Amino acid sequence: MTHPAFYPIGTPGQAWGPAEVAAWRAQLVRQRSYADDVLTVFERLRARFEVLPYGEVLYGSDVYPLFALQSLEWQAGLPGVLVTGGVHGYETSGVHGALDFLDQHAEVYAGRVNLLVAPCVSPWGYERIHRWNFDAIDPNRSFKEPSAAQESAALMRLVAPLLGQFAVHIDLHETTDTDASEFSPAKAARDGVPYTPVHIPDGFYLVDDTENPQPEFQQAIIAAVERVTHIAPSDAQGGLIGSPQFDRGVIRYPLKSLGLCASITGARYTTTTEVYPDSPRATPEQCNAAQAAAVCAAIDFVLAQR
């Protein structure tokens, strides 16, 4: 893959201002419909889950209502499970894997856990197949107070009354070839720093929490997902995407200090999935199924600890 030395917007070495953000935004077009792809599925699921409006994202004339789905009966004493998808709107299987979990698997856990699922946290990015929001801000670096991203702030408000009730939070993501060809160069240009090429792993991997590592939990998810799709092999340095590998298919980030979504509940068991949809060894259906399998494995692990 060819890695560009510069991005066509901005001046090398200078961070973007409003004019550069406007130029970046002007090149984006709506490529798919949040209403058609996501909201219609919510309507199909309404009989089985409580559909919770938790705000809206406002960008000019564009208004995106935000919804989560919750267990019909939230029972005191049951472990809470938060599932988030589409924090990066372009990561398709995060959205549709969460919806597939609700449609095909969640019934098994009724009366055993309290489910809260936000399948598409960033609808503006979903429609434009982009990592950032309207303001060229990465929502998955914005889960901190005060948040610079409307999407992140809304999700934190949704979760706040339930803090202390979650046993697990699984945040569904993808790593794609465009991380190297588009988003990393764009980020370097936006921030006015040199671009460093990244190596994209071919396969599924997980991001554990440096401050609260849970290796057995992570490996239970790896084992379940491996029945659906392949696990990313180590790179030449023995790591993954520039980070040390602590177990097979597992790296660690300091979730809270980076403002990552998986930090917002303070749950004991947290993870961020990373599916690789551009692999010749994986189909979109496999990617969705891998995300759903990861959610099931996370819940099964927590239930086995009780």
UniProtKB/TrEMBL annotation:
Task: Tell whether Translocase is among the UniProt keywords.
Answer: no
Question: What keywords is this UniProt entry annotated with?
Answer: Carboxypeptidase, Hydrolase, Protease
Xref: PROSITE patterns: PEPTIDASE_M14 (PS52035)
Membrane-crossing ranges are none
Location of the Peptidase M14 domain = 30-306
Q: Name one GO molecular function term.
A: zinc ion binding
Tell me a GO biological process for this protein: proteolysis
- CDD domains documented for this protein: M14_REP34-like (cd06231)
The entry's family comment says:
Belongs to the peptidase M14 family.
Name of the molecule in the record: M14 family metallocarboxypeptidase
